Amino acid sequence: MRIKTFTLNTRQEAMVKFTREVLTLYKVEITGPRAETDYDQLSVVHRRLPDQDGLPRLQTIVWLFDAQGNMQRYERDDIGQRDERPRAALHRIAKLNFYRVFVEELGFPSAPWGVLHGVRPTKIVHRWLRAGFTPAQASARLQSVYDCSREKAELIVPMAVRQLPFLAQGKKDMVSIYVGIPFCLTRCLYCSFPANILPGEKQLQHFMQIWQKDLEAAAAAVARYHLRVQNIYIGGGTPTSLPDAVFADMLDRVYNAFYGPDCVEFTVEAGRPDSMSPAKIAAMAAHKVTRVSVNPQTMQERTLHLIGRQHTPEQVVTMYHALREAGIPHINMDLILGLPGETAADVADTMAKVVALGPDDITLHALAIKRGSRLKLIMQEKHVDLPGDAETRRMSEVALHAVHEAGLQPYYLYRQGYMSGDLENIGCARPGAEGMYNIQIMEEHQTIIGIGGAAATKVVDPETMVMQSTFNAKDLTTYLREIDTYIAKRDALLARAYQKTLA
User: Fold this and answer.
1) What predicted TM-score, i.e. pTM, was given to this entire model?
2) Most buried one in 38, 237, 300, 480, CB count within 10 A?
């Protein structure tokens, strides 16, 4: 739908956000006065009505005006739930009302997730389960108050239940460590992550000196508050883009700082075969790395070339077997659905090749085209053939069928903005090979201490379970210059949560 102007009767940030999420979902384009459009104006009014039975009630009125002055008027209203905070209820209803006008009046298709927003939808299910909901009640409520499809509800409710024993393993003094190495050998076409092309020796040496200061400060905090490290995750960027000697030294420092008897998972993102070497594999094996991510993204060679990957599918297979031969216990493989030029048939071929290798964990990502990606910039300049939403959803069906047939079960999920097909990123593992760090970072039940470029620290108070965050700069120059500031902010959050445990 193309419209010349759009009006909303409130400037309240949340109301604006949720209303515009529906416009984005249905690709409503606001063109300005000179373009050819379907309607001259779309106007939305959200109006609070008197409470009903003590529950907040909101009415939404939508007007559409065409070039001839004809008007269409639609109206919806709904009430909150007993256990909802009134403000949250009003925000949800505003989005739900507006969404239902598009689906029920304007003929747009239902969205798989309805109006269920946020990165971590399973957190809502966990809250309901703690409140005494049965899984069946949680599934029904997702469908009724969020217009979530039955398929998605029946995906995330069993997933949330499956996560419970993993979350129960975390004790109040347990934390995870995230180490960010913000370098890659090349930048993929779709990438919007804060990664940099690997610098020369002098610049890299300077980064590693600052990074070591960051690491030592984090290790001192862990010791100060007598914290136990459950998981270590080295990500990026592509950590294995470091030269062999630098990578081995980095791994050694992380191991000596944090590895101990409580560590159940030590993960390294190896990314792609052009960053791998026998020396790096040997270093990971020697330092008891338990999990390595091999991320082919696709096994279609023409797509790899298009997105800027300097390797072949055959090299992915070689890398996988080398890691297995080195005795790495768990291997994860990441794939992306919705890549340019691909079809569901291409995804079926990729899945057949990946499943044949026997990875312990396959993560299916839906392409998210962010403003910072080169793909987004190129799309603005020239045509790039991306699969439509319907084709991307077929890709997801094909991929999920393949992992199910291989005996892998979904165990964590997260969503991003601008995702193809209104889909999600979903991790599937064979029973017993679930990634503990993946569950902890998504469900936000545990403190994650971040070290390195663009790393985030998320501190969960062990008594109140309230989370507070601080972020290292995405810009590498700023991180290097302001390292003392970032260390101080992290120390302050940790002191606020754990100082009282020393008493």
Assistant:
1) 0.90
2) 237
